[in-house]
Write a structure and sequence with these properties.
single chain; mainly alpha; 2 domains; 67% helix
């Protein structure tokens, strides 16, 4: 069930009315209702996947309870390994089984040895990477004694399957979201209004920005061998805005929908393309995943402590694992490797924490310097995005190599439908976000109603609902 479909636009109001006007008397009833509708929402893709999410929920619920009842370190480790084994085992089988089979076969073929091995017909469950990390963080936090486990299975299951953020995040921590299921919610008009703002802005980013860019991205990457340099550069830029509008649009809608039901989710994007270096970019892009890897991988490995060699090792570890988390393809690993290479110079010069504030420009010289930094960071990010988007590593390298032909004919701008209009639309979108970069979303504030009406008009005029496009991160 897609957020950008008429089905969901029917589903959401019905759930909202029932939640606040029928099942609002008791906390247990509210949570049970949310659990049921979350299972309906998730099962709409394929009801068979419900067994997987139920298995992870049951395992982590009882493992956490057992962890709280023992002080024996050896037993606690066994329980933690059980949780890790089940969750990562399911994730590994459904997401990476064919990847390892194909890599094994290709490695032998490179030595001239042919192998007859068939891949399995495995369907990747939607959102498995997201809810797996969410449940794992709960078990790990209980193991570390940073969190007390709940004894209420309905509360915990509702936390795991909460439908607004179930399939593409934000990846919530139990310490933040679970307590919200343990207290009575009452309707808050201001919270609901801010939620609607986020839903509208997120929907605009998805159906207007991302889906419009997708048309050109698909065409350019499919015909990159015959495209000129300008077209290929535009393809990289369009994909940067496609994936940003698509993923941050989903996150905005998820956070907004959660607010309609009295919940607060963590912010997942903070205008990442205004970053002045790659370290700042990763503090602003997919924040829930970046902080997850920081807390559960980077810091346990030693983080920024220890020798320079260990620091560099830890940086490569977190980015390579992050790349592999995104998909079973070497393109994602290369994408992670490139981001690690971008990050290392900042680490070695102790500049990786330099830009932690919102951009405030006070002079022409400062503005030019800032724009240059933003331009360099965005360019490096676009180069890495080519690997993220390409089907194979070879295609990504050829795509970038073809740019070096420096053929800048303007035929693409002159003859392709809506190309100029798309560039103007992206320029306007960037301007709106730039002048609202200190706010969570651009709609609130002065002329609020006028901006809401304007966004709704743009969504219905330029957006596509008859054939809704999947969100990119559903494949992860």
């Amino acid at each position: 069930m897609l957020f950008n479909s008429f089905l969901f636009l029917t589903f959401l109001p019905i759930v909202f009315i029932l939640y606040w006007f029928v099942f609002n008397r008791k906390l247990k009833t509210q949570n049970l209702f949310l659990l049921i509708v979350s299972y309906v929402f998730y099962g709409w893709w394929d009801y068979r996947f419900l067994t997987l999410i139920l298995l992870s929920t049951v395992v982590d619920f009882y493992v956490a309870k057992a962890l709280s009842k023992t002080e024996k370190q050896k037993k606690k480790k066994y329980l933690l390994y059980l949780s890790l084994g089940v969750n990562l085992g399911l994730l590994g089988f459904f997401k990476y089984c064919n990847f390892f089979i194909e890599s094994w076969v290709n490695s032998w073929q490179s030595l001239g040895i042919e192998m007859q091995v068939s891949t399995l017909n495995i369907i990747l469950p939607v959102g498995i990477s997201f809810y797996t990390f969410q449940t794992l963080s709960y078990t790990i936090d209980v193991y570390r004694k940073q969190l007390k486990p709940t004894n209420n299975f309905i509360e915990f299951a509702s936390f795991v399957t909460f439908f607004p953020q179930l399939v593409a995040g934000p990846i919530e921590r139990a310490a933040h979201l679970l307590p919200q299921f343990q207290k009575k919610r009452s309707f808050d008009l201001e919270r609901a209004k801010s939620g609607l703002h986020l839903i509208i802005w997120g929907l605009l980013k998805k159906v207007v920005i991302a889906d419009s860019c997708a048309i050109y991205v698909n065409d350019i990457f499919s015909n990159y061998e015959t495209a000129n340099s300008l077209t290929l550069i535009l393809g990289g830029i369009y994909f940067a805005f496609q994936i940003y509008g698509d993923f941050s649009g989903y996150s905005d809608m998820a956070i907004g929908i959660a607010r309609l039901f009295g919940f607060d989710l963590m912010r997942n994007f903070n205008y990442p393309y205004f970053s002045r270096d790659i370290a700042e970019f990763w503090r602003r892009w997919h924040i829930s995943l970046s902080t997850w890897f920081r807390d559960y991988l980077y810091i346990p490995l030693g983080g920024s402590k220890g020798s320079r060699v260990k620091q560099i090792r830890n940086v490569f570890a977190i980015f390579l694992v992050s790349g592999f988390w995104h998909g079973a393809n070497w393109t994602f690993v290369i994408w992670g490797f490139l981001n690690a290479l971008y990050f290392i110079p900042l680490l070695l010069t102790n500049n990786n924490r330099k830009h932690k504030d919102t951009i405030a420009i006070s002079s022409l010289k400062e503005s030019i310097n800032t724009l240059i930094k933003i331009g360099i960071t965005f360019s490096l990010t676009c180069i890495a995005w080519v690997f993220f988007r390409a089907d194979t590593v070879g295609i990504a390298f050829n795509y970038l190599y073809n740019i070096t032909a420096f053929s800048f004919k303007i035929e693409y701008l002159s003859f392709e439908r809506y190309s100029v209009e798309l560039l103007l639309m992206l320029f306007l979108f960037i301007a709106v976000e730039w002048f609202n970069r200190s706010k969570e979303e651009p709609i609130s504030g002065k002329f609020e109603m006028l901006k809401i009406i304007g966004c709704i008009v743009v969504i219905f005029v330029l957006g596509s609902f008859s054939n809704p496009q999947d969100f990119i991160y559903f494949q992860f």
